[in-house]
Design a protein that fits this description.
32% of the residues lie in helices and 14% in strands. By secondary structure, it is of the alpha/beta class.
Length: 259
């Protein structure tokens, strides 16, 4: 099936912090957390996950629009932004990224809603698939659940390795974008976490297809097509619409049992 796209590589290098620049504000939640985070606002927590080759800064517009009602936390994934860049590719697996996310979630007050774009959306899906009931909800933008077919998985992985330079990241960082198995695809029907699935109407059509697929397969997923939305629509003129959809989704969670 569909894999997550890894961000808009044409602009990714510009969004990474240049060498020697001041890092984004850091809130490390304790010595175990190795990732740089940007945090502001107050209220129910929202945790933002970016795509390959971008950084926490990709969420700045949405965070500005939501921080008056929510605690907004954006993460620099390993190898991005102001987070460390280890040489060992084993540090960049999906499962290691989920452990890093667990450490950040453990420092928040109350369960968070995960908001992920592209690779970050896949990580949000993987977190819900492997850690039922931990996240309050998930919002995913222009992403997919990966591949069940091993041949298609390896084709995707080969492209990810080959194109690492196009995303402005070292090859070992692109390991995070590799599809290691079909666990998300295999568990979609078991993911009871409420989910909002967004796809941009101006993005590649497979993302709308992936969103519709997720809506069909996940018990508590709703798909919304953002007309005219590009791959990075949360950064553009569509940011207010994306932020409004996120806020409405979180508000609706309060009406659910246990919400």
């Amino acid at each position: 099936m569909w894999a997550s796209c890894a961000g808009d590589y044409r602009r990714s290098a510009a969004r990474l912090a240049p060498a020697g620049s001041a890092p984004a504000p850091v809130d490390r939640y304790g010595p175990a957390v190795r990732l740089n985070t940007v945090r502001r606002g107050s209220g129910p927590p929202l945790v933002f996950l970016h795509g390959l080759g971008t950084s926490a800064a990709t969420w700045a517009a949405c965070m500005d629009l939501l921080s008056d009602r929510f605690t907004v936390v954006a993460i620099d994934l390993l190898g991005h932004g102001a987070s460390p860049v280890p040489d060992d590719p084993a540090e960049y697996t999906r499962d290691r990224a989920l452990v890093d996310l667990d450490e950040i979630l453990a420092g928040l007050v109350g369960p968070a809603v995960l908001v992920g774009h592209s690779l970050g959306g896949y990580l949000a899906l993987a977190h819900a698939a492997t850690r039922p009931g931990v996240a309050r909800g998930i919002v995913v933008l222009n992403t997919g659940p990966g591949y069940r077919d091993p041949v298609k998985r390896e084709e995707w992985n080969a492209r990810s390795r080959r194109n690492a330079h196009r995303f402005g990241v070292p090859e070992q960082v692109a390991t995070m974008n590799l599809q290691e198995d079909s666990i998300v695809m295999d568990r979609l029907a078991e993911i009871e976490t409420p989910a909002l699935v967004l796809a941009g109407g101006a993005d590649r059509p497979e993302y709308a297809g992936a969103g519709q697929y997720l809506e069909r397969k996940m018990p508590a997923a709703r798909f919304v097509l953002v007309e005219g939305g590009e791959h990075s629509m949360h950064e553009s003129a569509h940011a207010p619409q994306v932020a409004t959809l996120i806020a409405e989704f979180v508000d609706a969670l309060a009406d659910l049992p246990g919400g």
